[in-house]
Amino acid sequence: MDRLLRPFIRDWWGILLLLLAWQAWVVLSGLNAIVMPRPLDVVADIATNLPVYLPALGISLAAAAFGLVGGFMLGLGLGILTWASTIAAGMLTPVTVLFSSVPVVTLIPILARLFGYGPGTVVAITVIISFFPAFVFSSAGLRALPPGSADLFRVLGASRWRVLTSLALPAAMPNLAVALRIGAAHALLAAMVAEYLMGSSGLGAMFAAAKSELNTERALGASLIVAAISLTLYLLSLRVEHWARARYG
Amino acid sequence: MSGPSGAAIALHDVTRRFPLKGVPEGVLALDRVTLDVQPGEFVALLGPSGCGKSTLLRMTAGLDTPSTGTVRVGGETPAAVAARQGFGVAFQDHALLPWLTVRDNIALPFRVAGKPVNQGRIAALIALVKLTGFEEAFPRNLSGGMRQRVNIARALVLQPEVLLLDEPFGALDAVTRRHMNLELQRIWTETRTTTLLVTHAVEEALFLADRIVVMTGRPGRVAQDLPVPFARPRPVEVMREERFHEMQDSLVLALEPEAHD
Amino acid sequence: MRLARDPRVLGVLGTLVLCLAWEGIGASGLGGFTWPPLSRVLAMLADPDRWDLFGRAAGSTLASAVVGYIFGTLAGVALAMLTHFLPRLAPGADRLAAGMHAIPTVALAPVFLILLPADSTPPTLAGIGVAFLVYVAAAAGLRAASAAHRDLFQVLGAHPSARLLRLDLPAGLPSIATGLRLAVPAALIGAVIGEWFGAPRGLGVLIVNGMQNFQIVLLWSAVLLVALISLTAYLIAGAIERAVHARFR
Fold first, then answer.
1. What does the pLDDT average to over B46-65?
2. Among the CATH numbers 2.40.50.40, 3.50.50.60, 3.90.550.10, 1.10.3720.10, which is that of A48-248?
């Protein structure tokens, strides 16, 4: 038991401390449970209202997944285009600079108005938001070749296509893994924010509704689910990243 | 200060094993090495790379501990000597702090020790290592030889009981290296600090040391303990003497026996 | 021809194309009525009658971002120093930081909304985003001193506090400066999202109001203003970063 418990506390003491502080704070401050529920109340609300939570979660996850895949393909495609053309690469540097220097999330309200309050809009927004990291990291990764390898391929008279598939794309794998990790976090965030702002459907909308009804347990339940899923996604994509580094790095 | 034996540095029956995956007893790097350095003596540890001479020096400095055996500096543990700033060290990596000027790098040991900075002492050392005029320069703007001069000055600034030098000129080109050896000889003659120098350059050891301890590798053992007969101060002409060349040849042979079989 | 391949020329060209496309799509009506031409957006930002509105909103958002930036930096550096002196705490602190970062800000907002007055949510969210980036950068920076430097300080008998002050902290400054640059957009994202969750004023409030009330030009102007503020702060942080790198490396 001790063998299991020690590593667990070593790795998770920070988050455990946070949850404990939350629970203790509510108990000690004597706040009304309606104003500020304890973590256990929130877990209980999720467990007893699964039919409410699960469809909303499904909608949000689907939007995030479609958006992530679409944005990733779009970013990688444009990354390959800039890899093939120095002029395109130079012209698209402002996009790269903007991604790292400007809060891209603030585009969501503009996109919401552009596409209208329809069901496809959330997906379109997640596509565009997750496009940025995919493009920035894939175009950087396609250029991060092992030293000397480009010369070797040129001496061998390899075609442009062969250089791309045999050299540049494998060399970009670690960067693509980073893009996936950041993109996954961005996609879920974008889906939630879009749903919240438009009040359409999914966890974000559910949270918006719970907030206006002052149903704090429900609002925090939505938060807790998103938090747990984000953390799982993050840890999973970290695994993918380690694998890509070990295999291609 | 000296221990019961009177030695400034006393390494006794020192063995060091490094752990290795799949080998439960580990790799034997040093095998029962005993070495005494007398106060005011300059001893060179000479040996091929991987013979454990740097490990011996690191143990003397308290950066490593023996698996068995004892290390005493002035009769005390290395940690105790380090705690009262009794060591001066210069390693091959000059380890100058890139954000400090020449003057502040040399003043660093004062500040680390929490002692008031003796600017007169620093100015004298800068003059001793011939860097007057470069006090406000940063290490990145200095040549390799100049950086090692700063390194030596920093090692001497607190008037250490023991000076530990690990290939201090190992990264320099041959011409600069010989020049730095002349300088070190001159500086050392003025201070006469107890010194342990690790090197694999025979000429350097012969020119600088009072005594040369030759080591062999795998596992590291003391093979020879050789007094150097040249009187001090040693002019550069010493290196052209017949006896210098004879000793140089026999030491080179001792370092690479298999190459001459 | 050489000029045409200069990345700076191409970057300016790309920015120009981006602006022209924005203007063209807006003016031709290709993007619908929710896509205003750039000139109308700039005209609104340049209109002295609007300066009071924009000035108050930008001041409020900027204040939130700055407060969050400062406290987030302090928290990140403090946590990094704690794990520096107590390395056993490092795995748990890493998880906590990664967890807080992986969880979308939207999911955290409700918790703070309930715990804190509405106008302190923006700086809090800004601070959390900043704290993570600065923690990661500072933790890596405090480990950046070379083995030779560490040996030197050990042989000199340096007290841990002397080592921190004279070696680890200065050696870590370049990494911390990089983290501070990356934290600029994070601070603004936190501030704006915090405002979306119900702050009384700020550019985020202008954005949401513009979106909900179909004040399209106002919406785009406020988003552009956020981007410009972020870009300016990012460039300043980049200049500071370069100076620190030149001095401490």
1. 89
2. 1.10.3720.10
